[in-house]
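Workshop exercise sheet. Pairs work together: one partner reads the sequence aloud, the other fills in the structure field after running the prediction. Swap roles for the next sheet.
Pair: D.N. / O.F.
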Amino acid sequence: MVKKRKTPFRMCLGCREYKDKRQLIRVVRTPEKEIILDFSGKKAGRGAYICSDVECLRKAVKGKGMEKSLRSAIPEEILFELKNKLEMSSAAENERQ
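Structure field:
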């Protein structure tokens, strides 16, 4: 009999909803105190998760959810890069429909 694997769920810092870990984008504070985006979900360090929605990013930044979760200030260039990725993915999704 094949054992069914448990699906990992994580909470989005913007909308505060639990979603499948693979649907979310991970922001990581590495052991060297560097903040990076982790699209593989496997880099070492403290992670925070965000939906692929620009509105969720705005809520997470406004409420300082990411800063609290990572216990560190988020550099502007990381937020800018994340926002661009989210806007590009939403534009690509809109083209598919």
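Discussion prompt: The mean pLDDT is 91. What would you look at next?
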